[in-house]
Write a structure and sequence with these properties.
Helix 9 (about 215-225) runs antiparallel to helix 10 (about 235-245). By secondary structure, the protein is α+β, with helices and mostly antiparallel strands. It has helices spanning about 15-30, 35-45, 50-65, 75-90, 110-115, 120-130, 170-180, 195-210, 215-225, 235-245, 250-265, 270-285, and strands at about 135-140, 145-150, 155-160, 165-170, 190-195. The radius of gyration is 20 Å and the shape is globular. The chain starts with 13 loop residues before the first helix and ends with a helix. A hairpin with a 6-residue loop joins strand 2 (about 145-150) and strand 3. InterPro entries: SirB1_N.
Length: about 290
């Protein structure tokens, strides 16, 4: 399905989109959500050219890369160095400032193909390859810059996949946080990030990319609709979905979503609910 006025990626058909969303919701609600599966489903909903064979090929590539890691190289630092040598040096996975301007930097299948991406997607590659090889690895959601951790808290080693997997010292991590937020590193920032938190942040990045490009409200809407399928999602996503529907000329559906959000927040913020109801009325009036 092509759109003559927009560059790719183009969305999949309505039937395939619905099927992909169903699978995403099922995976997100499972007992142990699979991070690579969820990221590839995001890719397939965003980019209609990613078919089932492409999803399988991406999983096979993660398996193949994991097979190139040495068997139990040692403690957390040895693991971090082994993954850095494999992914950062031999396969040249890394990021550059320009990658922040590209939607494919947030799509796992494209990151595997291009060997480039945002910090969080490169971290997903690190996590999934290292996990398959048996490493004690997890994501670490530093403010503004996602990294990976190896080992338990007492012996934790951090690596920055955006910088080719460079192993970080304590001052390195502190500098990353200060640079992103202006505040100092808090120990709570170093705790493992659950898979669904990682997925939510991936979708946040896609929404941020699309927000800067109003002509790509289609991309934003698909990302919001996936985020709404994650358990314990922020209620404000409903407001965002309503606004996007109105922006795209779907006034009735948008007004209904805004009304629903107003009902949700009325108990805690009556004046905000009134404003949102007014937005819903304005959206409906555009039909006249």
């Amino acid at each position: 399905m092509s759109h003559p006025y927009l560059p790719p990626p183009y969305p999949p058909s309505e039937d395939r989109s619905a099927e992909l969303r169903r699978r995403f919701a099922e995976e997100a609600r499972s007992e142990r959500p699979d991070l690579s599966a969820l990221c590839l489903l995001i890719g397939a909903v965003t980019d209609g050219s990613l078919d089932e064979a492409g999803i399988d090929a991406a999983q096979a590539e993660l398996d193949r890369l994991a097979g190139e890691l040495p068997f139990r190289p040692g403690g957390p630092r040895a693991w971090a160095e082994a993954v850095r040598r494999l992914l950062g040096t031999r396969h040249a996975f890394h990021g550059t400032p320009g990658d922040y301007q590209r939607l494919e930097s947030s799509l796992l299948h494209e990151v595997l193909r291009r060997r480039r991406g945002l910090p969080i997607l490169l971290s997903v590659v690190w996590l999934e390859v290292a996990r398959r090889a048996g490493a004690p690895v997890y994501g670490v959601a530093l403010p503004g810059h996602f990294v990976v951790g190896f080992g338990a808290a007492a012996e934790q080693v951090l690596a920055d996949p955006f910088d080719g997997g460079r192993v970080l010292t304590g001052p390195d991590a502190e500098l990353l946080v200060v640079g992103a937020t202006g505040t100092s590193l808090d120990p709570s920032m170093l705790e493992p990030a659950p898979p669904l938190e990682v997925v939510q942040r991936v979708l946040n990045n896609i929404r941020a990319w699309a927000a800067a490009r109003p002509e790509r409200s289609d991309v934003a809407l698909r990302a919001v609709e996936l985020a709404l399928l994650i358990p314990s999602h922020p209620a404000r996503l409903r407001y965002e979905r309503g606004q996007l529907l109105v922006q795209r000329g779907e006034f009735v559906a948008g007004a209904e979503e805004l009304q629903h959000y107003a009902d949700l927040i009325e108990v805690v913020d009556e004046s905000a609910a009134r404003k949102v109801r007014q937005e819903a009325r304005t959206a409906r009036s555009k039909l006249n």
